[in-house]
Specification:
6-stranded mixed β-sheet, 5-stranded mixed beta barrel, inorganic pyrophosphatase (n-terminal core), binds manganese (II) ion, alpha/beta
Length: about 625
């Protein structure tokens, strides 16, 4: 076994090739030579066919005969071309051939027993520890931490930067169970383009997603398959290149059904790719987004963490993966912020997109609306497939997840029955699936800005903490139901209703006065639940507005609204009211300054009274409302 302290003490002697010239010799390097003449004033030695020289009697330390092997060091090359050597007395040494440095390995074939190896690839990360500088080398077959030691805490090879193509030789060993190479030499390669090409080919090959069939037979899903495959490929590529993936998902049932399987699949892939057991933790981070869009606050936080990780750990900047939100105009300020950095953005969403607003800012945009489909294909359904394309082995653990996602978002897809049937084969009946959705939503509410990985996985019943899934699920699901009933019972008596000029019914509720604030459900969901209950009791068209001191949440059925346009009009009509917000056409939220609330609400009512009635009575049951 190599790698112990003794092995590195072996004395190495260079054997030059027979055609080596004097220019190839370096000072302070022991060379293997042969005695070709013994004279009174010393011995003549050959280091190669053309390189011969004298070891002068005054420095000669041994007795030699012609034909003897001797170890020498270069002393001087005189002006007349004469070469002077010293001999070195050494009993035990290892001969290193001049033109055969340690054999080139690939990271994939290196083991703890590989001994001295040469690796060629790209520097993907440079991390300064309190001891050595750890350089992560990527050769396309894998990544290996290479420890270079200058002095404790001192940066070794300060002229080498992330992205450089290098040749590293050194001894492979196991360090705390992990393979590590102790760097002996590290140089930039002469042909970076060739090395990059080989790296690119290897990475591209390994990034190709698995061949899997969709979980259910659904032509709409098939149409979206190429875009799911390119996302899976991009995400695999991120892990292969040691680049983090920052997942931001809507903090609701569908959002978590999208994010958790993807997080799991990426973790598993990271474990497969990286020898470092901490790699999944460093590379994949998931956080909920409370708003139904990428808030500037979240984007700035993500950016801050990414820049800190880069400064502290030499980590590369992440890809941001937005799930179950991220398709609209409201996301643009956050995206523009990230656009100044090398942070690609990918989106999987099923909310009505504003492709014109976001197209230039996104690397990948997966959305059923871009394929002539709609919200009925939920984000959870899509992301379970992406997770399977990343790691097909995850399939068995997540078969029930698309059904949970669809039920949580009240998808009216006819293929819901196929998903529910599939979940049945995994042992979940309809009530179980609905309870999981409720429990996820309740957990998301109390987790606030935390990812809650353990709890969420227990509730979703995928690779959890080992807690009793059914008990956790039922506790949270019944808690959610009780809290919802309490909120509705106390609020609904205070709803004020009126008929608008266009025939629509308008329900208004003062959320601040008549709901339990900061309890479950939040204002957006409360307004939605009230809307659903009242809409079920009477004929459409109907609009529900829940308002607080400085915001209003809108839900509508059967009225042609364009909320983003209404926000613009209100802002223009009411200078100083600070109107902002948006959302989707028929559901959204509006913010304003407190002192102008009554003006904003009455102008809003006028606009709604003038809105057209939709002959097809568009339902908004699908669209999640903001939790402002
Ligand atoms: Mn959704």
């Amino acid at each position: 076994m190599s790698g112990d302290a003794g092995a590195t003490d072996t004395f190495r002697v260079q054997a030059m090739d027979s055609d080596a010239s004097i220019d190839e010799l370096e000072p302070d390097t022991p060379y293997l030579a042969t005695v070709n003449g013994v004279v009174p004033y010393g011995i003549f030695v050959d280091v190669s066919e053309s390189v011969s020289g004298l070891v002068h009697e005054s420095t000669l330390s041994g007795n030699y005969e012609v034909g003897d092997t001797v170890v020498v060091e270069l002393v001087a090359v005189h002006d007349d071309g004469d070469v002077a050597f010293d001999d070195i007395e050494v009993s035990d040494y290892e001969i290193v051939d001049q033109r055969s440095p340690p054999p080139e390995h690939t990271v994939a074939d290196v083991t703890g027993d590989s001994g001295n190896v040469t690796l060629i690839g790209r520097v993907d990360q440079i991390k300064q520890t309190g001891g050595p500088t750890v350089i992560t080398l990527n050769d396309g077959t894998g990544l290996l931490g290479c420890a270079a030691f200058e002095a404790a805490g001192v940066r070794a090879y300060p002229d080498i930067a992330q992205g450089d193509f290098v040749r590293i030789t050194g001894e492979v060993s196991r360090h705390e169970g992990e393979l590590q190479l102790e760097v002996e030499t590290l140089t930039r390669v002469d042909d970076p383009a060739a090395v990059e090409k080989r790296l690119e080919e290897r990475l591209a090959e390994r990034a190709v997603p698995a061949t899997v069939e969709p979980l259910i037979d659904w032509p709409a899903l098939e149409a979206m398959w190429p875009s799911l495959e390119s996302l899976a490929q991009r995400l695999r590529r991120m892990i292969l290149e040691n680049r983090p993936v920052r997942i931001r998902h809507h903090a609701d049932g569908d959002g978590m059904c999208a994010a958790v399987p993807l997080e799991l699949a990426l973790e598993r892939f990271a474990r497969e790719v990286h020898d470092d057991p901490n790699a999944p933790r460093h590379l994949i981070r998931r956080s909920p987004a409370k708003a139904p869009f990428y808030e500037l606050e979240d984007a700035v936080r993500d950016l801050n963490f990414a820049l800190e990780d880069r400064a502290r750990h030499g980590q590369r900047l992440p890809l941001v993966l937005m799930l179950d939100n991220g398709s609209t105009e409201e996301d643009v300020p956050a995206y523009r912020n990230l656009a100044h950095y090398d942070i690609p953005i990918a989106v999987v969403d099923h909310h009505h997109p504003d492709p014109d607003a976001v197209a230039d800012l996104l690397d990948i945009h997966v959305n059923p609306y871009l394929h002539g489909e709609d919200y009925r294909i939920t984000t959870g359904m899509l992301c379970v497939e992406v997770a399977r394309l990343i790691d097909p082995a995850i399939g068995d653990d997540v078969r029930h997840v698309p059904a949970v996602a669809g039920l949580a978002d009240r998808s009216e897809a006819e293929h819901m029955s196929a998903y529910i049937e599939l979940a049945g084969t995994a042992g979940y009946d309809l009530e179980d699936l609905q309870a999981i959705g409720r429990a996820l939503d309740y957990a998301a509410h109390w987790l606030k800005y935390r990812s809650g990985t353990g709890i969420v996985r227990d509730v979703l019943d995928v690779k959890g903490t080992g807690a009793d899934h059914e008990a956790v699920r039922e506790l949270l699901a019944s808690g959610a139901e009780a809290a919802m009933n309490r909120q509705l019972e106390d609020a609904i008596a205070h709803v004020e209703s009126q008929e608008l000029a266009n025939g629509a019914t308008l329900h208004r509720l003062d959320l601040d006065a008549y709901t339990h604030r900061f309890e479950y459900p939040a204002p957006g969901k409360t307004t939605g639940a009230i809307h659903d209950q009242l809409a079920a009791e009477e004929a459409e068209p109907v609009i529900t507005v829940g308002f607080g001191p400085d915001f209003a949440v809108l839900r509508s059925d059967g009225v042609v609204l364009d909320i983003p346009a209404m926000v613009d009009e209100l802002d223009e009509a009411l200078p100083g009211a600070g109107v902002s917000g948006g959302g989707h056409l028929v559901v959204g939220s509006i913010h304003f300054v407190r002192g102008r609330r009554d003006d904003v609400l009455s102008t809003l009512t006028e606009k709604m009274a003038a809105a057209e009635i939709d002959p097809e009575l568009t339902s908004t049951a699908d669209v999640p409302t903001p939790d402002s």
